[in-house]
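URGENT: need a sanity check before tomorrow's submission.

F., can you look over the phosphoglycerate mutase (2,3-diphosphoglycerate-independent) record below? I want to be sure the sequence and structure line up before it goes out.
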Amino acid sequence: MSVSKKPMVLVILDGYGYREDQQDNAIFNAKTPVMDALWAQRPHTLIDASGLEVGLPDRQMGNSEVGHVNLGAGRIVYQDLTRLDVEIKERTFFANPVLTSAVEKAAAAGKAVHIMGLLSAGGVHSHEDHIMAMVEAGRRKRGGQNLPARLP
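Structure tokens as predicted:
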């Protein structure tokens, strides 16, 4: 790898997306003379900031934290969302010792298992599949009995 003796600047613009479609595109339609000049006169590149390219499920939007982690690592860093999806798919999630121990302890004491979390398909801070997998894990350990659910 060659080392340049010329100064170089890495500029990361969180939330500054690139899309050629003009409709509903604030960045494209804004007057940005400095950015336009830099783009026309200086080397630049675009990087993917969502989905499989940053360790998230396909078509899942990223966020600044995901982007910074991947840039800092210089490689794809699989996010918790993706890791949990894989564990659920491969069924290793249901053998998680912390989860199984908590359910077994509650069952042995005749107590309820309370599962709390965000119930959303968004995948940004939570995913409903993960909550449902915890319910399934509890049901399995409780002998397959149905568990009552209470939603606000």
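My own read: The chain has a mean pLDDT of 87. Residues 8-78 form one domain. If you see anything odd, call me.
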